[in-house]
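Shapes recur. Our protein:

. . .
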Amino acid sequence: MANQSISPGHATAAAVNRRMGRRKLEPILFNTFNTLFMIFLVIVTLYPFLNTIVVSFNAGNDTIRGGLYWWPRQFTLQNYKAVFASGTIYNAFGISVARTLLSTVLNIFLTTMLAYTLSRKEYVFRKPITLIFILTMYFNAGLIPGYFLMKDLHLINTFWVYVIPSMMSAFNMIVIRTYIGTIPESLIESARIDGAGDFKIFWRIIFPLCKPVLATIALFVAVGAWNQWFDAFLYTSSKQELSTLQYELMKLISSSMNANSNPAVSNGAGMTQQSISMVTPLSIRAAVTVVASVPILLVYPFMQKYFVVGLNVGSVKE
């Protein structure tokens, strides 16, 4: 039988078909692997917080056994009742909300004004002043001089000790100034030609165009102010009505640990001995974590689109 020869045209067509098949298969494999990897990453990221929620709704004595993963084994609200047993927790919540809102608004407004001033090339003192602010990021007077400064300013045992020290941040100023540098100078020059002054330019042009970076900075400042407890311990611990939520929750965890290690210890946060026996430091810590995290989790989705854009500040240069 005579051998059948394959024409060069057929061989070329078969090779092209194989390459096209591989090209079609590669995106499918990549998308499948990428999807599975991202699902795994989401599970690894979210599981610790999910487990914390599970522990917070589980009976404290049962939590000690371990083995809690996706669902409470003995569902209870006793952990949250222990957290909210004291009436001081509600006043502390209001103080934390007030300090967070005021600190965020004042920090954003004043820091942005300073960043705009130091971004202007015609301002002759912008370099030495910027250097002074940068030095504050590397050198700190320390805890004791800081306390005496607050005392000399008559801020001890006042609400403003939470707000005034946080009205300015050198790091935030640098980030905002970098973002302002990406705004076309022609916009500012056009506004000056139309007779606008510096404050009008700042309020009508610079401030609205800085929304992405301001949302990012606002989230940083708000989270920092919300989670702060050491300043309440340092400056207002002798005045219960100025206590913050985080400080009260810290005291609750501490008193829970002391009460479980020594049943004779009474709880200053308002927990009865019966409630102490039904919870454990681990379950209280989980409930405290959830209570402290919920307000930030409610705010973040509304700022996410600005947050992602703001993180790219300075990453692209044209």
User: Anything to note?
Assistant: The chain has 14 helices and no strands.
